[in-house]
Each structure stands twice: as structure tokens, then as C-alpha cells.
Amino acid sequence: MPSTVMPMPNNQSNQGQRPPAAVSALGLRKSYGPKTVLDGVDLTVPEGTVFALLGPNGAGKTTVVKILSTLVSAGPGTGEIRVGGHDLAADPQAVRAAIGVTGQFSAVDGLITGEENMLLMADLHHFPRSEGKRVAAELLERFDLVEAAKKPASTYSGGMKRRLDIAMTLVGDPRIIFLDEPTTGLDPRSRHNMWGIIRELVAGGVTVFLTTQYLEEADELADRIAVLNDGRIAAEGTAEELKRLVPGGHVRLRFTDPAAYRFAALAVREATGDDEALTLSIPSGGSQRELRSILDWLDAAEIEADELTVHTPDLDDVFFALTGPTGPTAPTGPAASATVPNQTKENVR
Amino acid sequence: MSALTLAVRDSSTMLRRNLLHARRYPSLTLNLLLTPIMMLLLFVYIFGDVMSAGIGGGGADRADYIAYIVPGILLMTIGGTVVGTAVSVSNDMTEGIIARFRAMAIHRGAVLVGHVVSSVLQSVMSVLLVGAVGVAIGFRSTDATALEWLAAFGLLALFATALTWIAVGMGLISPNAEAASNNALPMILLPLLSSAFIPVDSMPGWFQPFAEYQPFTPAIETLRGLLLGSEIGHNGWLAVAWCVGLTVLGYFWSISKFSDDPK
To answer: What residue intervals traverse the membrane (chain B) (predicted)?
Structure first.
């Protein structure tokens, strides 16, 4: 089992063999009045990877993106934040030059056309006129916006606006891109298009920091996922590591004959049954070996279910377990390979 | 690229954006033009006979009143135009594109400078249009020299710049367009409480100090002096002081509001 201790962005690790972090933040804090939004969030995103910040509405995802992209200032007590190798507090303009941001709400100028939006970005990146036109044309082509280029952006559909938004972010070729809920409100086709776009970016070596409330999206795209809940990181790791945090893998047997169900329920002691649905759940990690032994055993006991399904815990299980109203349920045992940071106040100065 | 060339380049990019908006959606500007033109026609042709009796110690006629009222109407035009500025700044700040600009390595003041320059250009255009209406109904400068015309234009541009910066700040503190238009109301009300329509000395004694020293009256009196040859006196310096003071105040107020964390 791989050791997956969360890389802590401390001085020791910076001197070591690790690739440089594109984004690192220590003890991110932010309050609005009496309401604490972020309560000490540590993040590290290695260069060229996709990092997904996953959390329910109001968890503080957007606030993290806003702070890391220099839009709002971090709260007092926040440690060092580095983005693209620059200290965010000391040199925000250098950070801004290194990043591209696509916020949750469309950041296009609706009063002007798609093409004019693109040329505006080219001008703000100080491209010469001809190069600006070339870059704008290329990106409009790449994002399938050529036909709509001469129409006001306010007339675009949600998916088109989002594509224009990303296209504008890509003018200037940023190496670090923040995407705040890039697919919220998109139809399934547009969502898959957006995933394709994000994969292309990553293939080009870009670091992507995205937030999402869709577990499927984090699973599809991200190298590492952090679950943000109530202003704290509830867990961090790869999708696989997070799934292992939550027990719940099982084989489910469904019966149509109540008599067969009762017989099986008596025979399989470790199973939990649902008398209404006539189903039995046998705990299992879902590996081939475990399945075979269960099948062999069922054959030997002459139990024949009408349907057998293997249920591996998905991110939904993790999500609900970690972001429930009672707070994170600390996983125990060797299966807990991803890190659940111990939320002590030791970072408070 | 030096800081100054960066500032100029980014500001002119933003200006192009604002001018594009104004060109595509001219209705707001045109609506704001309507008010001063209506006031001009109303005061000259409906109230003209009564109003003219109150100026120049009696014996004045409608032509005299046109000469009296046009300078005030021109400055009122600027007041009306900057209400539009406050509304459009407030609208603009609710747009996602502003967050994009904030997260880009561009000159911090460029967005606001773009608004200000575009708005001052619109004010100048509006003043020329309203001035043309004034000339059409009989306004004539008596003996203004080329230098005095130049000074008159300079004063109008300076006054427009001052009010625009204040209006930008008003737009920034307004959560929506309605609030912006309410906050900018003094820009329309102050000309009514100035020497634009009636001489200050015909107002109640307790009110005269306010009317005399508020920004519009010195500017109106200076413009009258330049175009019609009346006594300018201390109004010239007072007008310039108001313009410079409001510009500096509006500039620093707006920049500091823009630098605040967005809500």
C-alpha cells in the first residue's frame, strides 16, 4: 500500500526531491464578520497536476480560489501562500501574471461580442495587434466559437459562455489555471466537452486547480482531491485513497423468493439483510479473490440469488461520510491511507 | 514596460471597451441629454417671461434670459451625464469581467480611468449638443476672445473630470443601479440650488452662502464671465479649486473603494 502522507509545504520538503509546487498555502484563514469561512486550510498542488477542491455549497471553495487568485485578501493568521513561485502577499502582480482564473460566474463582457472579448484580453496582455488577432482567432476556433464570434456575448448559451470564459482565460498562456465550478449549470454534453478541454490543458503541462461539488468530476479529472467542509480540509488524497477511507464495499444478493432469502439470511452470518427488499449485503473489498471465495461459498451452501451486484464505495460515500452534519468521521485502521489532517490549532500564531 | 506606459496602455484598452459600450448602447446617454434640453426649453419658453423679470434689475427680456441660463444648463448637462457614469460603474462592478480584470496583471486603476475618460468625452459631446440647441434658440457669446473660448472649454472639461471621479466613487459604493442613481442625485439637484436659473442674491438670505459657494455657482459664474463678459471675480479661482479638490478627492476615494475586497 503506497504511503500517501500529505506533502506538507514546510521548509524541509522544499529543499528535498519533490517537484516544485505550483500552489502552496499554509493555514489559510478567512472570516467575514463573525462568520469563519476558512479555518486553517493547508494546500499543495505540484506542477502539472490537477487538484480538485471538493465540497458542498458554502464550504468555502470559492473563497479559497478568490484568495489564491488575489481577488480577496487572506485573513489574519494565514501562513505563507506561494503561487507560481511568487509570494502572494509580497508580489500579487507577479502571481496575477502567472495565473488564469475562470470564476463561478461568467467573466465575459456581455455587452460586446465574443471576438471583442478575446481582443480585449489580447490587448490587456500587451500583445501586438496582429498577434492578438491571431491568438483570438485560434482560441475562438479551438473552442468552437467562430460562428458566434460576431454576436454579443450576452446572447450566448450557458455552455458557449463558459467556453468563451475559458478561451479568455487562456489568452496569455497561463501555466496555472483556477477553475471555480467549471461545469456547474452545464448540460451533460457541455460538461463532457469541458472535461475534454481540461484534459487538453493538463496534457499541455498546465497546473489546474478546480473546485467542484460533483464527485464524478473530481474522480474523472483530478490527480489529488481535497474534501473541504466547513472551512477545513476533511480529507485529502487520490480518488482511490479517499474511497478506501470509507468502509462500505459489499456484495449484494437480491432474491425474489422470500423463502430462499430467509434460508440465505440464516446461512450467511456476516451478512446484513433487508427483509423488505429481500437483499443481503456481504462485506467485501470487491477484489477478484474475495468475489470468487464468496461465490464458491454460496455454491457450497446451495444459495442461488437472482441478482448479484458488487458495490464498491464511491466518492459519494466518502463525501457524505466526511461532510455530514456531525463533521468528519475519523477513519481508523490500516485502510485509512489518505490523510485526514488532525485539525489542531498548532498553526495559529 | 515602465509603470507609466503600462498604466496608459491598459487605461486606453479599458477606454476602448467603455466607448464600445457607449456606442452600442447609446440610449442611456441620450436619455440623460433630454433633461437639460427640456429644462432649457421649459425655462426659456414657458417660464421665460417671469424668470427674465428677475435678472438684470428688471427690464430684461427673453433673449437676455437665454444668455443668462445657457451657461448653467451646460454645467447641468455635465451633472446629468455623470449620473449615467455612476449607474454604469455600479452596473459594471456587478459583472464577472471585473473580477477577471482584478486577477490580471494590469494597471490597478485602468478600469476606473477607462470609465472616467469615456465619461468625460461623453460629457463634452453632450455639452456640445446642448450648446448647439442653445445657439439654435438664440444664445450668442457677446465678445469672447479665442483665449476665452479655450478657457471656457477647459473649465467644462475640468468640471466634467471632477464630477466624473466623484460619480465613479458613488457608483462603486452603490450595490445596484437604482442605488447609484439615487446616490448621484445631488449632481442633478445642485444646479437647481445654484445661480443657474436665478441670481443668488434673489434667494433667501440664509440660503445664499450655500448657493454661492457650492461647486456649481462659481463654475457657472466663471463660464458666464468668459462667454458674456460679466464680472468673474473670485469665482474663477473658486471654480478651479473646486474642480481640483473634487478630482483629487474622487480619485483617491474611487481607487481605495476599488482596491477593497469585492463583496
So the answer is: 25-46, 66-89, 110-137, 149-172, 184-200, 236-255
From the list A13, A53, A110, A57, the residue with the least C-alpha distance to A228 is A53
Burial of B253 (0-12, 13-18, 19+ CB in 10 A): middle
Residue of A nearest to B16 (CA): A120
Looking at chain A, the domain(s) classified CATH 3.40.50.300 span 11-108+156-245
Q: Is A178 helix (H, G, I), strand (E, B) or coil?
A: strand
CB proximity B4 to A under 8 Å: no
Interface check for B100 against chain A (CB to CB < 8 A): the answer is yes
A108 to B97: CB separation less than 8 angstroms, yes or no? yes
Q: State which CATH number among 3.40.50.300, 3.30.360.10, 3.30.70.20, 3.30.450.40 fits the domain covering A11-108+156-245.
A: 3.40.50.300
DSSP class of residue B40 equals H
Task: Determine contact: A107 vs chain B, CB below 8 A.
Answer: yes
Q: What is the pLDDT of residues A218-257, one digit of tens each?
A: 888 999 999 988 888 988 988 888 877 766 677 888 888 8
Q: What is the DSSP string of B126-177?
A: HHHHHHHHHHHTT---SS--HHHHHHHHHHHHHHHHHHHHHHHHHHHH-SSH
pTM: predicted TM-score of the whole model, two decimal places: 0.80
Q: Does domain A250-311 have CATH number 3.30.70?
A: yes
Instruction: Say which of B10, B13, B20 has its CB closest to residue A112.
Output: B20
pLDDT per residue over A80-112, tens digit each?
999 999 999 999 999 999 999 988 778 899 899
Q: Which residues of B touch A152 (CB under 8 A)?
A: 24
How many domains are there within chain B? 1
